[in-house]
TrEMBL record:
Keywords: Signal. PANTHER family: EXTRACELLULAR TUNGSTATE BINDING PROTEIN. This is Substrate-binding domain-containing protein. Residues 28-256 form the PBP domain. The keyword Signal applies. It comes from the Bacteria. It comes from Geomonas anaerohicana. Residues 1-28 form the signal peptide. It holds the Pfam family PBP_like_2.
Length: 288
């Protein structure tokens, strides 16, 4: 009996040590997981398929990528459901920051939006000077327009272009909303032979895999610039977010090596990169 009593403290100590070690190990594993909420274009274009493995190898973090529209990504940030965001909706981003949901917003890269349409171009918009002019012609012709309708950065840009054209498309038979991401909406437009707004990177990447039968109708307008920022979710609002991981990812995205990868991504396949690196540039140089 005395022997059992003498050994009992040892068993208790071992049990407590095991429990603490288990909790510590679980916490460490949790801190190595990083939730990235990002726009669908960075995923659909294939860029993240290149960058994420490099980041994980360099840092030891495990990234869970949630590919949604920029609006949905920021909603996740507002709720503390993501650690870091990679988005392309500047006006919504500014509000996100002003409301205190994000910290350390950094300019990463840009590409541009393009207006696409079927080869037979029923609205005769090919070569229009502006996207607004093209939209007016599409409305006059009652030609099918496919909208993502998902509160994404692309959807926000589209709404701005319709407003500039003085067109309210809601309720019009020629205006259909998919509620889908960029890649899926491109496929719907290809199937239905409709017009749409898309980012160049996703269009080129998907068109190479399976010819979509959609041609570039309008491009090159300054209003069609598509700018991406990385934003850390504010740990003061959500203490459980992985702020160290978010900062590591943000630093990785604007690092010299990553910016060099961005500058060449897609160049071999398409003759031009799908994105252009912008880290360190003044926002004013991009019209922000």
């Amino acid at each position: 009996m005395n022997r059992i009593l003498r050994t009992l403290p040892l068993f208790v100590a071992l049990f407590l040590f095991s429990a603490v070690a288990s909790v510590s190990t679980g916490w460490a594993a949790e801190q190595k997981n990083l939730i990235l909420a990002t726009t669908t274009s960075t995923q659909d274009s294939g860029l993240l398929d290149v960058l994420i493995p490099i980041f994980e190898k360099q840092t030891g973090y495990f990234v869970k990528t949630i590919s949604v529209g920029s609006g949905q990504a920021m909603k996740m940030g507002e709720k503390g459901e993501a650690d870091v965001l990679l988005v392309h909706s500047p006006d919504a981003e500014k509000k996100f920051m002003a409301d205190g949901f994000g910290v350390n917003r950094k300019l990463v890269m840009h590409n541009d939006f393009i207006v696409l349409g079927p080869a037979n171009d029923p609205a005769r918009i090919r070569g229009a000077m502006t996207a607004a002019d093209a939209i007016k012609a599409i409305a006059r012709a009652n030609a099918l327009w496919l909208s993502r309708g998902d509160n994404s950065g692309t959807h926000a840009k589209e709404k701005g272009l319709f407003k500039a054209a003085g067109i309210n498309p809601e309720g019009q038979k020629w205006f259909q909303q998919t509620g889908l991401g960029m890649g899926e909406t491109l496929n719907v437009a290809a199937e239905k032979k409709g017009y749409l707004l898309a980012d160049r990177g996703t269009y080129l990447a998907l068109n190479k895999k399976a010819h979509l039968g959609l041609n570039i109708m309008v491009q090159g307008e300054p209003k069609l610039l598509n700018i991406y920022h990385v934003i850390e979710v504010n740990p003061a609002k959500w203490p459980k977010v992985n702020n160290a991981g978010a900062r590591a990812f943000a630093d990785f995205m604007v690092s010299k090596k990553t910016q060099e990868i961005i500058s060449t991504f897609g160049k071999k396949e398409f003759g031009s990169p799908l994105f252009f690196p912008d880290a360190g540039k003044k926002p004013e140089s991009l019209g922000l």
